[in-house]
Specification:
The protein is mainly α and 94 residues long. It has helices spanning 16-31, 56-59, 63-77; strands at 4-5, 39-41, 85-87. Helices cover 37% and strands 9% of the residues. Strands 1-2-3 form a three-stranded parallel sheet, with no helix packed on it.
Length: 94
């Protein structure tokens, strides 16, 4: 059976670093659950918030940059050896 965690929070509009930090904290909370979720699913645009009124390019990341930023926070928040897949939406730049 697949175990999911679906955390909800209100992202701060345009605050990528703050929202990434919040995601790291929520991943730490998910890692402490029993049973531990196999997949943590965040909402679309969780990194930037909704309704950016033309500011999408300002908050867009490459997939590689997103992976680096999420991995850094994941490794800082989650005990070593803990494995969870993370799904989140973001505005992608190329």
């Amino acid at each position: 059976m697949l175990t999911l965690a679906i955390p909800q929070f209100r992202p701060r509009k345009g605050d990528l670093a703050g929202n990434l930090d919040r995601i790291g904290g929520l991943l730490a909370q998910a890692a402490a659950l029993e049973p531990k979720p196999q997949v943590v699913v965040f909402a679309e645009t969780v990194l930037s918030g909704y309704f950016l009124e033309g500011g999408v390019r300002d908050v867009a990341l490459t997939a590689e940059a997103l992976l680096h930023e999420v991995a850094r926070r994941y490794e800082a928040a989650v005990p070593a050896g803990t494995r969870m897949d993370v799904i989140l939406g973001f505005y992608e730049s190329f």
